[in-house]
Amino acid sequence: GAGVSQSPSNKVTEKGKDVELRCDPISGHTALYWYRQSLGQGLEFLIYFQGNSAPDKSGLPSDRFSAERTGGSVSTLTIQRTQQEDSAVYLCASRHRAGGGYTFGSGTRLTVV
Amino acid sequence: DQQVKQNSPSLSVQEGRISILNCDYTNSMFDYFLWYKKYPAEGPTFLISISSIKDKNEDGRFTVFLNKSAKHLSLHIVPSQPGDSAVYFCAASYQGGSEKLVFGKGTKLTVNP
To answer: What is the arithmetic mean of pLDDT over B61-90?
Structure first.
């Protein structure tokens, strides 16, 4: 597609449930990033995928968070046993390996009640 | 430990005047700096960037200045327009860090007609 697509755009879930957030990057972009923005905060790095290399998971806040990228394209961020502090906007971005700025999706607003 | 700081959460200017948004960083390994603009319910969009080998980069109404000795950069918007009203994020990266971006908390710019 022309841009980075994220789904769902909004998700309300009960505390303790698992959620899956999806990101469909720009075709041909080999690098994919997940960030989150909590209320009043900047964008916090979560995880980075580059081609077939091992992902950089250094930003994942706990082992309840995991992500995968299948076939070098679509990525899924999974949060298990959600907590209220997980409420945030989760943003996905992709970029061409050759550089340039990231292209962000519109994000998924996650609310844990 | 916040490596990228935007100390002004908000800024208000009159249409036609100059807007100056400031950003400070602490990590001397950062070698690439970017500014993103974000409207509500949308993902951040890339605005302008600067490499550490330069001290100025200009694109139309937008100019970014980098002062490496002070670890400070600024974004100038001249002349400011009401459509520039958005949250502006400063971001930094370095080649050895998977090129992930470290973001500031953002500055909300309001341009009054």
So the answer is: 97
